[in-house]
Amino acid sequence: xxxxxxxxxxxxxxxxxxxxxxxxxxxxxxxxxxxxxxxxxxxxxxxxxxxxxxxxxxxxxxxxxxxxxxxxxxxxxxxxxxxxxxxxxxxxxxxxxxxxxxxxxxxxxxxxxxxxxxxxxxxxxxxxxxxxxxxxxxxxxxxxxxxxxxxxxxxxxxxxxxxxxxxxxxxxxxxxxxxxxxxxxxxxxxxxxxxxxxxxxxxxxxxxxxxxxxxxxxxxxxxxxxxxxxxxxxxxxxxxxxxxxxxxxxxxxxxxxxxxxxxxxxxxxxxxxxxxxxxxxxxxxxxxxxxxxxxxxxxxxxxxxxxxxxxxxxxxxxxxxxxxxxxxxxxxxxxxxxxxxxxxxxxxxxxxxxxxxxxxxxx
Length: 363
Prior knowledge:
Elements: H1 3-6, H2 9-12, H3 23-30, E1 36-37, H4 49-58, H5 71-81, E2 88-91, H6 93-105, E3 111-115, H7 121-128, E4 133-136, H8 145-150, E5 156-162, H9 174-183, E6 189-193, H10 208-213, E7 218-223, E8 236-239, H11 242-251, H12 259-270, H13 272-295, E9 307-311, H14 316-325, E10 328-329, E11 331-332, E12 341-345, H15 349-362
Parallel strand pairs: 1-10, 3-4, 3-5, 5-6, 6-7
Antiparallel strand pairs: 2-8, 7-8, 9-12, 11-12
Helix pairs in contact: 4-12, 5-12, 6-7, 6-11
């Protein structure tokens, strides 16, 4: 028996998630002394000093297992959002919560809906769970609510919406989300992934909590990996009906969020002034990057996130490789369903200038 024969067919055919290249890997492979990473939508400003201090303090208890229920972090999040702790589920990043939602709520007899250009982990979780799903195309880089509704089947039980969407940065306006929620059967759970919500500045963005509080079957996903700068600690959370949270807690691994991650997340959540500083700087640089790319003839999709996405002539991976050799890591989007697309994280001013300068050199 070969190793490949040990894998079930539905696992063997999967394509694993492709993360952005780490800086040290690029330096080793290409012998570059300095590399700018704009590939993974990390905050270039890092965690708040208060979060770093809390993490250092928590390390003194690294020989102890963490609080498996995350009592204090859940309590802080409940107060922050005006819900109960029983409506909060913790995960090792919101990515784990995607997998846990599929495991807890869906079976191979159910059906789900995703869009064609979005966060790949939705499809991967459904494939692993052997849950049938329909892929609905975006229209001009935006969600098409009518097409989503046409894809609903009698056994449809879940719809995944990244809002703002990764990798396009576009969003679902409030009227569209309201129409979708009003039109979907009551059995359908809408997973409203708000990983990039802090960067939104448009007036008609719909807060998922508003509809959850009205009784809509919405699960909100949030993460500490973006604006809070804790991507390396892996902590995210879901807000949902207590029955759904109980389902998540039943199927998750114990101790899935470390003691250090919980402590840092609590401190980061409390440091609202630091978050405002990061958001303001990111929005300013997002506008600058958008203007620069537009002047180069490659206007990005209108972004409400901490990245911009634009289409290039030809294969985006070839452009990514050329930028890589210049010491700039960006994200080609073939794995996301957009083979001519590049996604560029909004970095510090000097990082963004370096990217634009290198891009101009290659054009």
